[in-house]
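Much of what follows relies on a compact textual record of a protein's fold. Think of the row as the fold of the chain written in a discrete alphabet. An example makes this concrete, so a full record is given next.


***
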Amino acid sequence: MTLFEKIIAREIPADIVYEDDRVLAFKDINPQAPVHVLVIPKQSIPRIAEAADHDQDLLGHLLLKARDVAGKLDLKENGFRLVINNGPDGGESVPHLHCHILGGRALNWPPG
């Protein structure tokens, strides 16, 4: 069971900012920006490269809820970044698909 599955099951506490029947959003414990929230699907998909065609609806829901959470966090006016890491070279640290919402300051490019 991954760290995120334990958060979904409430075995590990998290500072939850949004939840519905398909996704959960919570503050990152190691923030890389003034606002750093993770949005995760409750269905376990290890990473975006392993998503199947039948996951399309869930993936769309994940992105739209990331948009909504960013709005709730007052990030829409000045902007925010959505990041999905894939694999070790992509910076993935938990093998459970998740979207980072980063904001609250100007973000540099390229990121890494």
